[in-house]
């Protein structure tokens, strides 16, 4: 059961996560403010359901990657249900991973869930890993591209848990 303080923090973390994931991603082709609000509300509810799976720390990497894909599919389904036109008629894998991974990072740092298997992939991380060819996270649209970045991070982390490695490595601009 989530108490009032945790719900408040989850809402704040959600606002920060959506801002970071949607800011430069050009998510919507066409949507009214009301449609966007409903879209974000339903997606927040879905991510809260998913995040409960991370409470006991039993989520393995394969499940986590499947959850990213589920977020992507759920976002597309919600958009279709509300008549929202997404850019290129899809919700990219890179946007879904940033949204889920950042939200989980906040929840983990607040002590609400156990350490997630991954971290939010963004420009700073991709550049620091010297990924070639460089792909902007907003353009990532496949598990294969995402896993290429995760593989490079695993090499750099040298056995350290990825979420912890990224937390120590990540520097704000």
At a glance:
This protein is mainly α and 173 residues long. The chain has helices at residues 4-22, 33-51, 61-81, 93-109, 123-128, 143-157, 162-169, and strands at 28-30, 85-86.
Question: Which consecutive residue ranges, at least 5 long each, have pLDDT under 50?
Answer: none
Assign a percent range to the helix content: 55-70%
* N/C terminus separation: 37 Å
Strand fraction = under 5%
SSE pattern: HEHHEHHHH
Structural class, please? mainly alpha
Mean pLDDT: 93
Radius of gyration: 16 Å
Number of domains: 1
Main sheet overview: 2 strands, antiparallel
* Shape descriptor: globular
Number of helical regions: 7
Record the strand order, biggest sheet.
1-2
Number of E-state strands:
2
Oligomer: single chain
Characterization of this structure:
With 173 residues, the chain is mostly helical. The chain has one domain (4-169). Helices cover 61% and strands 3% of the residues. The chain has seven helices and two strands. The protein has helices at 4-22, 33-51, 61-81, 93-109, 123-128, 143-157, 162-169, and strands at residues 28-30, 85-86. Strands 1-2 form a two-stranded antiparallel sheet. Helix 1 (4-22) packs antiparallel against helix 4 and helix 2 (33-51) packs antiparallel against helix 3. The longest helix has 21 residues, at 61-81. The protein is globular, with a radius of gyration of 16 Å.
């Amino acid at each position: 059961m989530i108490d009032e303080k945790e719900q408040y923090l989850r809402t704040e973390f959600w606002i920060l996560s959506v801002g970071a994931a949607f800011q430069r991603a050009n998510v919507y082709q066409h949507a009214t403010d009301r449609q966007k609000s409903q879209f974000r509300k339903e997606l927040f509810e879905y991510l809260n359901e998913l995040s409960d799976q991370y409470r006991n720390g039993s989520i393995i990497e394969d499940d986590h990657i499947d959850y990213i894909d589920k977020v992507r599919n759920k976002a597309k389904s919600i958009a279709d249900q509300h008549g929202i036109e997404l850019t290129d008629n899809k919700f990219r894998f890179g946007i879904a991973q940033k949204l889920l991974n950042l939200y989980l990072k906040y929840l983990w740092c607040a002590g609400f869930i156990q350490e997630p298997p991954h971290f939010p992939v963004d420009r700073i991380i991709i550049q620091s890993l010297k990924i070639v060819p460089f792909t902007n996270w907003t353009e990532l649209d496949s598990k294969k591209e995402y896993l290429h970045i995760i593989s490079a991070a695993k090499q750099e982390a040298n056995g350290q848990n990825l979420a912890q490695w990224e937390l120590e490595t990540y520097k704000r601009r």
